[in-house]
Amino acid sequence: MSEEFYRIKRLPPYVIAEVNAMRAAARARGDDIIDLGMGNPDLPPPPHVIAKLAEVAAKPDAHGYSASKGIPGLRKAQAAYYGRRFGVDLDPENEVVVTLGSKEGLANLAQAITAPGDVVLAPNPSYPIHTFGFIIAGATIRSVPTTPDEAYFDALERAVRFTVPRPSVLVMGYPSNPTAETVDLAFYERVVAFAKKHNIWVLSDLAYSEIYFDGCPTPSILQVPGAKDVAIEFTSMSKTYSMAGWRIGFAVGNRTLIGALTRVKSYLDYGAFTPIQAAAVAALNGPQDIVAANRALYHRRRDVLVESFGRAGWEIPAPRASMFCWAPLPPALAHLGSLEFSKQLLTHAGVAVAPGVGYGEDGEGFVRIAMVENEQRLRQAARNVRKYLQSMGVNTPAKVAG
User: Fold this and answer.
1) Both 62 and 163 in a single domain?
2) Residue 366 vs residues 178, 329, 378: alpha-carbon distances, Å
3) Strand ranges inside 181-244, DSSP E
4) Measured between alpha carbons, how far is 157 from 152 in angstroms, rounded to an integer?
5) Helices (H), 243-288
6) Residue-level pLDDT at 398
7) Residues 99 and 218 placed together within one structural domain of the fold
8) In this predicted model, what pLDDT tens digit does every residue of 211-253 receive, in sequence order?
9) DSSP code for 245
10) Which domain holds residue 37?
């Protein structure tokens, strides 16, 4: 009996798990760890959403199997959101499916449309499911950059010319996790034109659509005329409404891809718990104060983090969107590499971050910092970082504001 399983053999060790294990052990010892590693929102959902969950859960008939593709009211609510936010018309019946978070949707779509040996273009660095969802399905990954400049489109053209078999899928996600890079509608227009020219499906991950800063709303690829001919887009309620543990997301767009995902899901799950779906309807159709409030809160946290860490001696670029900073290692410590640096920061500063190499080899030299602690804790983290940098012989400013 073989213990060498085909798909498991294709998965490398999960680098970020090393830091997660160290963090858990430190907390078990009673250490105070400021966790900026996992993008786990620390805020509650709106009260009216929780109330709707409780109301529906109290009904005796609400506890049976739900609808795998999502209850009709939720699909209609998501279509209405796209209409309000992006001016995009969606058919709730054939162009919207509810997923158990965007991660599950991406993974199941990969299973639905991928044959062993297919070539998929995916960003590097990237959120792991963007690559490993397809690796598990048997695909071969050809990496493309995340930075949306001419080098990005040059990489796409080279991939089409020199890859055998020709790529069949392009995966992208903006605002990017982990790099926080953003794009404009002109970028998506070029992507759609490229995809149509070369008969390539486009999978867009828009999980951070509502966490943008400096008055620059993030666009949807579906705003491009004709994008639904080639593209599907994933969104999530995890960050927008602080509902990460509820596991509610959506896939919208191309009918063929939506149909494939819906069919696979029908074999694998019965959909999210009906009261959760009803509460998600209340979130999408109800007051949207939390969306603006969360955006403003992450904006303040971004400013505090960038300013206080800069005073500590670690210059971090300010992201234009998302709940993450993509931070280059302090130059004097770049030789450590992102994994060792993350381990040392946890051990000696009590601050957990995610090593960039965990998001792909091109993430080496960076760490991802999640803005999931309050402003006081972010300043405390900066003070701890300053002491660590000093212990490593790094010149730091005279004082960190507290």
Assistant:
1) yes
2) 10, 5, 19
3) 201-205, 231-236
4) 9
5) 255-268, 274-285
6) 60
7) yes
8) 999 888 999 999 999 999 999 999 999 989 999 999 999 999 9
9) G
10) 6-42+289-391
The residue assigned the tokens 């069919």 is 263
In this structure, the answer to whether residues 141 and 243 fall within a common structural domain is: yes
Same structural domain for residues 71 and 213?
Answer: yes
Band of the pLDDT at 325, cuts 50, 70, 90?
Answer: very high
**pTM exceeds 0.85:** yes
Residue 19: the pLDDT is: 82
In this structure, what token pair is assigned to residue 330? 């302090």
Separation in Å, CA 270 to CA 100, 276, 390 = 10, 13, 54
State whether the Cα torsion 215-220-226-227 is positive or negative. Answer: positive
DSSP 398: S
Question: What burial class does residue 186 get, using C-beta atoms within 10 Å of its C-beta: 0-12 exposed, 13-18 middle, 19+ buried?
Answer: exposed
DSSP class of 323: S
Number of domains in the chain: 2
Q: Which of 51, 166, 79 is nearest to 118 (CA)?
A: 166
Please, what's the largest Cα pairwise distance for the chain? Answer: 65
> How confident is the model over 346-386, as pLDDT tens digits?
999 999 999 999 999 999 999 999 999 999 999 999 999 99
Residue 397 placed within a domain:
no
CA distance 342 to 183: 29
Helix (H, G, I), strand (E, B) or coil at 34: strand
Instruction: Copy the structure tokens of residue 318.
Output: 């300010």
Task: State whether 216 and 176 are in the same domain.
Answer: yes
Bridge partners for 172 per DSSP: 204
Closest listed residue to residue 127, CA positions, set 25, 234, 210, 33: 234
User: Per the structure block, which two tokens stand in for 173?
Assistant: 């996600």
By the 8 A CB rule, do 280 and 52 touch?
no
**CATH at residue 159:** 3.40.640.10
User: Under a CB-based contact definition with an 8 Å cutoff, are residues 23 and 355 in contact?
Assistant: no
| Joined tokens for residue 72 | 């009709």
**Among 253, 268, 285, residue at a domain's last position:** 285
Residues 366 and 254 in one domain: no
Domain-located, residue 251: yes
Q: Same domain, yes or no, for 80 and 174?
A: yes
Q: What is the 3-state secondary structure (H, E, C) of 181-197?
A: CCCCHHHHHHHHHHHHH
